[in-house]
Design a protein that fits this description.
It is a multi-pass membrane protein. Helices cover about 75% and strands about 0% of the residues. The chain has about 350 residues and is an all-alpha fold. The mean pLDDT is about 85.
Amino acid sequence: MVAAPLGLSALTPAALRRLKFQAGLAGLALLLCASLVIAVTIGPADISPGEVWAVIAHKLGLIAENPVSRLREGIVWELRLPRVLAAAAVGAGLAICGAVMQALTRNPLADPYLLGLSSGASVGAVSMMLIGATLLLPVGAFIGALVAMGLTLGLARSLGAITASRAILAGLAVSALASALTSFLIFWTATGDSYREILSWLMGSLAGARWSDTGLALVALAAVGAPLIASGRILDGFVFGDTAARALGIDVERTRWVMLGGTALLTGVLVAISGAIGFVGLILPHAVRLVAGGRHHHLLPLAALAGAVFMVWTDTASRTLFDPRELPVGIVTAMIGAPAFFLILLRNRRAT
C-alpha cells in the first residue's frame, strides 16, 4: 500500500502559519537583495547588475582583477551602494520602531513620527549641526528623541489612562513644539548655505550618505533593532494589556521603558543619518499585519524586511523622478503615507 503524499491541508494551523512565515521571510529577503542590486544600477550612468556584482566581489577580495573602470567603480562603491544600504537600514529600523511602539502603547497609530520622536530627534540633531559638532549628531538626536518621548507619554498620562487618541494628541502637540523650536534655532543661527542644507536635511534626504553613515545605521540596527525583533513574544503579551502581561511573568513597567528607550535610541541614530522621514513606521507594520497577522515574532522580522525594500525604492524614486533635481525622500514617503494614514483611521473607525 502506497501512502498518499501529505498536502498543506494535512498541516496543523501552527505548522501552516510557520510555513507561511518562512516563505514570506525568504521571499522578502530575496526581494531585498534584488532591490539593492537593481537600485544601484538606476541613475544617470547606465550600470549593469553584472558590474555591480563585479565591484562588490572585487572589494570583498573574491576576484583579483576588477573588469569595471575606475569611474564606474567609484559611482557604484562610493556613491550608490552606501546610499542604497543606508536607505535599507533606515527603512528596516523605522518599521521595527513603529511595530514596537504600536504594541507597547496598544495604539495602532503610533510611530516615531506621530509620537514626536522624529521631531524631537531633529531638534537635537539640528542643535549639533548649528554648533558644528557634527560627530555628535546621533547623540543629540537620541537625547532629543528621548526627551520628546518622555514629554509625549507624560502629557498623555497627565490626562488619565494612556489611550490611542490621547497619545496621538500629545504626540502631535510635542511634535509641533519641537518643529517650532527647530525652526526658531534655524532662524536665529543659520546663515547662507547652512540654512539651505539644514532645510533639505529636515525634509528627509539620504543624498549625503557615505560608508560611515551606512556603518553607523547597520551597527544601530544590529545592536538595538535585533534585540527588539527578538522580543516579539514579549510584545505579544502587551497586546492583551498590562494585567495579561504581568500574568505571563513580564515586568511591565521596566520592560516598557527599556523598549521605548531602545526605539528612541534607534530613531535618534536613523534621524541623524536621514533626517525626519515620516509614515514608514506607521504604514509598513500595518501592511505586513494585514498579510501575516499580528504575532510579533513573525510581524517584526517581516516588517523590517518590508521597510527596507520600501525605503530602497522610495529613495530611488526621490533621486530619479525629477533628475537632475532631487526630491527629498520625506516628501515621497508623506505622499504615500498620508493616504494610508487616512485609510487606517477609516478602518479603525469602522472597527469601533
